[in-house]
Amino acid sequence: MDELPTLSVEDLAAHLSQPGNAWQVVDVREPWEVATVSLPSSLNLPLSQFPAWSENIQAWIDPGRPAALLCHHGIRSAQVCAWLCHQGYTQVHNVTGGIDAYARRVDRSLPCY
Q1: What separation in angstroms does the CA of 32 have from each of 28, 35, 44, 70, 72?
Q2: Distance (Å, rounded) from C-alpha 65 to C-alpha 80?
Q3: From 71, 81, 85, 112, the catalytic residue
Q4: What residue ranges do the domains of the chain occupy?
Q5: Strands laid side by side in the 24-27 sheet
Q6: What's the pLDDT score for residue 36?
Q7: 3-state DSSP percent of the chain in helix, strand and coil, to 5
Q8: Environment class of 41 (CB within 10 Å of its CB; exposed 0-12, middle 13-18, buried 19+)
Q9: Residue-level pLDDT at 2
Q10: With 0-12 CB in 10 A as exposed, 13-18 as middle and 19+ as buried, what is 101?
């Protein structure tokens, strides 16, 4: 795969606001970062704990539903997104700019760090 599928924070917000939203939001930041700011209903799978969750990934992320991968700026989530693509996931998207962009451009009530 040459290029990762991406999703803007604006498009993520639009998907999440739809009734019957099927999107999974997977946040790969550290627990302390998620405690600082997170999106409702996001699943926290810290990249630093990859060995603990990666072997049973289908128990965590449904391959039949679209998934938005999120971190602080989009670097860590890109790593996990690429790995998921190599695992055969076809509906994963890296959120461009991460939670920082979401807080700055979509929901300014969210804290930045």
Answers
A1: 11, 5, 11, 15, 12
A2: 16
A3: 71
A4: 6-105
A5: 6-7, 92-95, 67-70, 24-27, 43-44
A6: 97
A7: 40, 15, 45
A8: exposed
A9: 62
A10: buried
Query: Is 71 a catalytic site residue?
Result: yes
Chain segment 75-95, per-residue pLDDT in tens: 999 999 999 999 999 999 999
Q: CA neighbours within 13 Å on the CB side: how many for 39?
A: 29
- In contact, 24 and 41? CB cutoff 8 Å: no
Q: Tell which residue, 13, 36, 35, has the closest CA to residue 25.
A: 13
> Using CB atoms within 10 A of its CB, is residue 20 exposed (0-12), middle (13-18) or buried (19+)?
exposed
Q: What are 33's two structure tokens?
A: 């970062």
Type of residue numbered 107:
D
Classify domain 6-105 at the CATH topology level: Oxidized Rhodanese; domain 1 (3.40.250)
37-64 pLDDT tens trace? 999 999 999 999 999 999 999 999 999 9
